[in-house]
C-alpha cells in the first residue's frame, strides 16, 4: 500500500479544522494543522508536505500571501506543493486572483465534504 500523503490544513477555526481533519484521516491522509501564516511557513520548511488546504483568512500572513511565498520558494519540492484555497470570502477574489497567486483549486465555505475529498484526491493523490 502507498505511503499516506501528508496534508497541511491552514485554518484558524478549530471546528472546521477538526471536521476537516476527521474526514481526511478517514481517507488515510496524515494531517498537520497550522493556525496562522507563520506556522504554515515554518511547517513547510521543516517537513515534507504533499498538499495544503489554505484558509485565505488565517491570522498574521493571510493565505494568499502564504501561497505567493510558497510559489516563490527556491526548492521545487516546496514551490510545487498543491494548494487548495478554502474560503468563505471567495467573492473577494476572482479565479484570476487565485491563479496569479498559484492556487490550484478552491473550495467555498461552508465546506462540502464530498467535494473536499474529491478535490483533495484530484490534486494530492
Report the structural category: alpha/beta
Broad CATH class = Alpha Beta
Q: Main sheet, how many strands, which sense, barrel?
A: 5 strands, parallel
Strand order of the largest sheet: 2-1-3-4-5
Total count of domains: 1
Report the β-strand fraction as a percent range.
15-25%
Rounded radius of gyration (Å)? 13 Å
H/E topology pattern = EHEHEHHEHEH
Helix content: 40-55%
Name given to the CATH architecture? 3-Layer(aba) Sandwich
Modified residues (4-aspartylphosphate): 55
Protein name: Response regulator
Domain Response regulatory: 6-124
InterPro entries: Bact_response_regulator, CheY-like_superfamily, Sig_transdc_resp-reg_receiver
SSE order and pairing:
Layout: E1 6-10, H1 14-26, E2 30-34, H2 37-46, E3 51-55, H3 63-71, H4 76-79, E4 83-87, H5 95-101, E5 105-108, H6 113-124
Parallel strand pairs: 1-2, 1-3, 3-4, 4-5
Amino acid at each position: 500500500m502507498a505511503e499516506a500523503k501528508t496534508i497541511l490544513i491552514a485554518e484558524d477555526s478549530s471546528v472546521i479544522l477538526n471536521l476537516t481533519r476527521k474526514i481526511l484521516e478517514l481517507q488515510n491522509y496524515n494531517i498537520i494543522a497550522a493556525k496562522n501564516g507563520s506556522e504554515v511557513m515554518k511547517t513547510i520548511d521543516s517537513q515534507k508536505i504533499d498538499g495544503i488546504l489554505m484558509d485565505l483568512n488565517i491570522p498574521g500572513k493571510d493565505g494568499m500571501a502564504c501561497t505567493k511565498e510558497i510559489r516563490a520558494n527556491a526548492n521545487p519540492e516546496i514551490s510545487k506543493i498543491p494548494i487548495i484555497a478554502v474560503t468563505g470570502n471567495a467573492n473577494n477574489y476572482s479565479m484570476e486572483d487565485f491563479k496569479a497567486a498559484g492556487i490550484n483549486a478552491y473550495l467555498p465555505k461552508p465546506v462540502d465534504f464530498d467535494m473536499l475529498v474529491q478535490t483533495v484526491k484530484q490534486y494530492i493523490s
